Amino acid sequence: MCLVNVIILFWIMNIKNSALKYSQATGKSWGDVEAAYQRRFDLIDNLVETVKGSAEFEKSTLTAITEARANATSIKIDPAKVTPEQLEAYNKVQGGLGGALKSLISTVENYPELKSTDAFKNLMHELPSTENQILTARSRFNESVEIYNGYILSIPNNWFLSNYKEKAFFKSDEGASKSVKVKF
Q1: Which of 39, 100, 106, 109 could anchor a disulfide with 65, C-beta 3.0 to 4.6 Å?
Q2: Taking the complete model, does pTM exceed 0.85, yes or no?
Q3: Phi-psi region at 175: left, alpha or beta (left = phi > 0; alpha = psi -120 to 50)
């Protein structure tokens, strides 16, 4: 009887330790998402400073990008307690920053001397790479959430893991399902 109790105890400990491991992996993945977004913030700061230094530029565009960046950095999420509502709000402010960045880039089209500077070219080259890093980090976060949720919600694990809560996934940005129309 004592041996059966020890086996059950070790089995339960294994379930809890595995849940902790998966939870930590999800937290690490969230850190990677934040690092990718931080790279974007830093890149945007450098892009704005390059534009300011190279052209008499439309102040409203620079103001919009600065405000969108401030909004995007204002939301903090605890990966241990992430909810769908928090991720939706996070996505919304990140989308606002993306929109402001697109506005900056389209406005720059009117400044050929700016587009020809090496600093601007380098920053514009880094932008798609950064967006790809964000996409990759978000995808990996969703993968880690899938593993974590699958583990804690499966039977018999959920019998022993009531203090572990299901985590939310990143979803596509609003309007992402609409096809892009290309006009020539």
Answers
A1: 100
A2: no
A3: left
Number of residues that make up the chain: 184
Please enumerate in sequence order all residues whose Cβ is within 8 A of that of 83, keeping only pairs 6 or more positions apart, or say none: 168
pLDDT tens-digit profile, the chain (184 residues)? 788 888 988 998 999 999 999 989 998 998 898 888 888 888 877 777 776 665 555 566 667 777 777 777 777 777 777 777 877 777 777 777 777 777 667 666 666 665 566 777 777 778 888 888 888 998 999 999 999 999 999 999 989 888 888 888 877 666 554 544 544 3
Q: Is 167 exposed, middle or buried (0-12, 13-18, 19+ CB in 10 A)?
A: buried
Are 71 and 97 spatial neighbours (Cβ–Cβ below 8 Å)? yes
Contact 61, 107 (CB under 8 A): yes
**44, 97 contact by CB (below 8 A):** yes
Look up tokens 């307690």; give the residue: 81
3-state helix, strand, coil in the chain (%, to 5): 75, 0, 25
Q: Is 89 in a helix, a strand, or coil?
A: helix
Amino acid letter at 83? T
Residues 6+ apart with CB under 8 A from 128: none
